[in-house]
Amino acid sequence: EDDFPMAVDVLTDKVLDGLLSSEFDKSSCLSRYQSVAYRKESAHKPSSHLISRLRSYEALHRRCGPYTQSYNKTVEKLISGQHTEISECNYVVWLSFSGLGNRILTLASAFLYALLTNRVLLVDRGVDMADLFCEPFPKVSWLLPSDFPIANQFNNFDQKSPHSYGNMLKRNPVGNSTLQFSYLHLAHDYDDQDKLFFCDQDQTSIQKVPWLIMKTDNYFIPSLFLMPSFEQELTNLFPEKETVFHFLGRYLFHPTNPVWGLISRYYQAYLAKADEKIGLQIRVFDTGNGPFQYVLDQILACSLKEKLLPEINQNEDVGSLPLNQKTKAVLMTSLNAGYFERVRDIYWEFPTVTGEVIGVYQPSHEEYQQTEKHVHNRKAWAEMYLLSLTDKLVTSSWSTFGYVAQGLGGLKPWILYKPENQTAPDPPCRRAMSMEPCFHAPPFYDCKRKTGVDTGALVPHVRHCEDMSWGLKLV
Ligand code: GDP
């Protein structure tokens, strides 16, 4: 009854190859069904094991989610502090923390951890989580109720918090098996004790705690692949290791209708008709006000060298082109408008040597990060999503914003190296080994031998990242 091809195969009723449950109401989240019309089909298929684990997770979530009988019971125990019989329902509460790209990556990490440990994931709604993302699980919400008893303590949870697993270990190294909740501090400033989260021995004691409250700004999945207790299950879930975020992302993150409006209107107005779509994600971490000439030089050097954009013909006497030339749409994202204006002007002022017609577009220039503002985050989410709809993508080093786009899109980006000393690096960029995000602050610890170890050199599928030499990524 509507014009969009649905993600549902009518014969089998499968949504995204069975990745998504078929139990949703379509109108409440249009993107879940309409996105297939905007994306190329994924080159990858989810494993049947992943699909069956997602369905059993959804069933668990339905039994244990907010305000179910089991939920109410475990919440009572949390208040009374009594440790009575073991409940079927144990939880990971994900705390809203950091920029939107970071939040998307950490939420995927927390979900996979929940899946591996048979826990239920509940999401601290922060300022705008409910405004940005559709509910990913059918029937029962993933949002933590605002009357959750210890919600008022969330703001105090940090590296120094006495409730953190690391600090608890410092006081009591044998662990405390009767805790009702534990705070897992997995943010960039976590210390050696907090990092023991990634050791199997510690998981054994963490497993007994019904409520885990997790705060992180890191995509920590690569380190889960180095833990013997999770290794086999992870291999079964993801036979192709570089598809972890690709599938978890497409499973979990569906823009709400207002955000989908931003995405679909922009796509149809500026991108849909082009023969090829190129994404350029520009994130500059240098201090000072851009635009910087060295960043512009680097963008052009990379795009031309890798033949993502055509050279220009600087001869003045080239006249008009015949109609019906090939068109390329370049989608740029940046907090700053300067790079976009320069690239757009170059292709307006000069013809291309190939005759291609280049349109350059940038949805917004918000000038600076405004994580607490609704419209700002809606636009950021829309732009990550739009980048994921391009055919070829250039990203900036260290940026989780870019990681989200590449993972959702199933794209191996060209990564712009981080400029040093205000000069464009040479070479300007390189192709990524895989579409996976980088874990920026991984542990370097051998849990068995209790010594330091290079965790990027232990197995072939967990390597150091292209854009951060100490980071880890799946390949
Ligand atoms: P990261 O800092 O690049 O890893 O990405 P995050 O998404 O975690 O944090 C950066 C935040 O700055 C984003 O969430 C946006 O709020 C804002 N931001 C950065 N780059 C852009 C951009 O190109 N477009 C928009 N709309 N916002 C951006």
Automatic annotation (TrEMBL):
Its EC number is 2.4.1.-. Its main location: Golgi. GO terms for biological process: cell wall biogenesis; cell wall organization; xyloglucan biosynthetic process. GO terms for molecular function: galactoside 2-alpha-L-fucosyltransferase activity. It is a single-pass type II membrane protein. Keywords: Cell wall biogenesis/degradation, Glycoprotein, Glycosyltransferase, Golgi apparatus, Transferase. GO terms for cellular component: Golgi cisterna membrane. It is found in: Golgi apparatus, Golgi stack membrane. Belongs to the glycosyltransferase 37 family. May be involved in cell wall biosynthesis. This is Fucosyltransferase. It comes from Escallonia rubra.
